[in-house]
Write a structure and sequence with these properties.
mainly alpha, 2 helices
């Protein structure tokens, strides 16, 4: 069982700042974030158990996210 307390999901917003109103879209986005959080926590735990520095692992995860490109972006 996960000992972390559940986080409040973000209010998902459209590019114009309006909240996303489709419940199915919100559900998918929240599930995606939950899955990413679990995967990142597992990667951090694995790295620490293998003797890596936790701060460096977190920095690598931040760099990964920061390096993502936005698909279907409208210029």
């Amino acid at each position: 069982m996960d000992s972390r307390s559940p986080k409040e999901p973000p209010v998902w917003r459209q590019p114009d700042g309006k909240p996303v109103s489709c419940l199915e879209k919100i559900k998918v986005l929240n599930q995606n974030i939950q899955e990413i959080e679990t995967l990142c926590a597992d990667a951090l735990e694995d790295g620490v158990l293998m003797g890596c520095d936790a701060t460096q692992i977190k920095q690598a995860l931040h760099e990964l996210i920061d390096g993502l490109t936005t698909p279907h972006a409208k210029d």
